[in-house]
Amino acid sequence: MELKQLYTDLILEYNKDKTNKRKISSPTVHEHGHNPSCGDDIDIEAKVENGVITDLAYTGTGCAISQASTAMMAELLQGRTVEEGLRLCRLFLDMICGKVTDDSQLEELEAAITLKDISQMPVRVKCATLGWHTLEMALEKVEKQLKDNG
Question: Where are the domains of the chain?
Answer without folding.
Answer: 3-149
